[in-house]
Amino acid sequence: MLCKLAWGNVRRAGRDYLVYLLTLTLGVTVFYAFNTISMQVDIAGIDEEGLAQVMGSMLGDLTYFLAGVMAFLMVYANNFIMKRRKKEFGLYQVLGMGRGRVATIMALETVIVSVVAFVAGIVLGMGLSQLMTFFTASLFKTQIANFHFFFSVHAFNLTLACMLVMFVLTLLLNLRAVRRTKLIELMGAERRNESIKTRNPWIAIAIFAVGVVLVGVAYYRLLRDGFPLTATDSKLQEAMNQFGITTAMVTVGTFALFWGLSGMLIKLLQSLRSVYWRGLNMFTVRQLAAKVNTVCFSMGVIAMLLFLAITSVTCGMSIANVMNENLERYNPVDVSQTYVYYTPDTLDYYKEYINPSEADRMVLADTTVDLYPAWHGDPWHGDRIDSDNVADGIKGKSADNNDETSKKVNIADIAGEHVQIDSYLSYPVGGSNPSVTPSEMCKIMGEKLPKAFGGSNADAMGLFVTPASQYNKLRQMMGEEPVHIGHDQYLLTCDMGGELVDLYTKYMAGGHTLTLGGHTLKPAADKSDEDTAAIANSAMGSNPGTVVVADELLSQLNLQPYSSSLLVNYKQGMDTTEADESIKYTVLDNLLVDGKEPGSWGTFITRSEMYVQAAQMNGLISYLAIYIGFVLVVACAAILSIQQLSNVADGSRSYRVLAQIGCDDRQIRHSVMAQQAVFFLFPLAVGLAHSFVALKVIIELVSIFGNMSIGGTVGLTCAIFLAAYGGYFLVTYLMSTGMVQAAIATRYSE
User: Is the pTM of this model over 0.90?
Assistant: First the structure.
């Protein structure tokens, strides 16, 4: 009997349960789909070791976040339903039904709705997870060779456990509410409408103005200072403190905006008498003012959450796009190996902060070494390297520290064209002050240094210097004509694109000179090279700025060596996969000068490996950004929807009175639409404003690595968000009009 009654109640009160059901279903759908990542990765053909585990671990942490969001929304929506149903439950008690049976009916209704939402969510989640497999493959640049329908028992059990916990929590809260609420309170629940209390308009306007000023100043500070990521180590703490102040200002300002909104709206619209007295505008404004008083805090929270959602998705996907677009330029050869020399700063750092005994085996590098013989497996026979002191314990190790020495491969069997790029600091051996820096170049041109570069250690290090012969050999490998650089000329190169290349191009086009070791150099061209400027394979560029000079000039300068990079292309006709596998077993000999190390082996990476790693990184960033963004948007929309439905329920008597005095349905619907549009659009507008300012700063930060275009990403992000956000708005409006029509149709007065 009770089950039948509970089922009838759910059917009859379907409109009240709709938002609750929709939110819970979407939560289950997203929760299940995103927890099937391990199976998506497998089917998508992403077989890199550890990727599924990494993504699973990261998503596992986010699972708790989503579970918390779902629990909050479930409780929030349930409170709305309880408020709507209190009178009905009170009537049951008047008719003689005990509180235990009322609680049982309530529990059964919760079970029915939860089961329906769970089943619908799992079905939709299964479909979404199949679609996300193709999306995952696209993000990670793979091809699906053997697609098949799959069902994740792990994701199902996890979703079920989460649902059970939330169900028990909701049930306990409902039982507690019934036990503590008196019968008179249950019967009069709908009568206790919120009284319309408006704030002093002048105080509200003042608070609103304070909010505008705080947000404006925060925008200015953020645009001026950028993110703390651009600060040097010595100024990092100060930058973090200033960023904290900026964050506090924009947060407080946002809440102040919404706090003062109600009084300001009344004052503004009252001054526009032709608008204020038209139709139901006076009623609508008074309703808005009353409700803003109570929801200003939640509107502020929603605006900040929308800001985080929009920024995270747009920024994450845009950065991934920048990396993808520049991969070819960043990785010009099949494989590269870098050797990093010890400088005075390196030795001092080891002696003071690491281990003085470690520094005893190091020696200041005063010349570069030939890397190919060392990688070839033959001892070095140059003047500065003592072949008798090659460390036997180190000799025989593979390039990636694979100890399978039985598979040792000679680099000569793999390598075709190769070139070594030697990079020197722009000061002599034993010196410390660079001769060529981006900040000095900007000073000469009378321009500001890009914020992303000005606070970095790279500017203090200065530009690198490399010989023209090596640079031209690299160009020849890449099918480009050599560039003539005279004894008194220079050429600037950079593979990071964006603002750096623009800076160097402008400097050369202006005919500005450079001074190295007392030699004044003129530009050899009017444009900086970025297409053949990579000095090693990398993810975000390896050459922030290099001065190419004539070999004979370089030999006279006695500059401090910084690094050497050996760039190798495989022999023509060689299978890349086989070559990548073979090169793992090539040998890197330890290089010693008088028994000491002039440097250490650095990054070893193949082009195909970098492409795979970049695809994985970009895919992971995009995946997590979309995940977080979608969850936050749905949460915001659900909170707003429930709030508006609650407002309509509270104002049912007002709408009934409006109908009785002759207002037609069209006017009433327009009033409902206007109220809900304000509550949905104002947080969205503030969130978008915050996002655009933050994205401008992020674009400036990322532009040091390449030109960042966010147009397409913003469009896609807005489309996804508007679909979810607008869907909730539409559902809310339809449910609200239905509730208003039901209230108007009621013939008795309260």
Answer: no
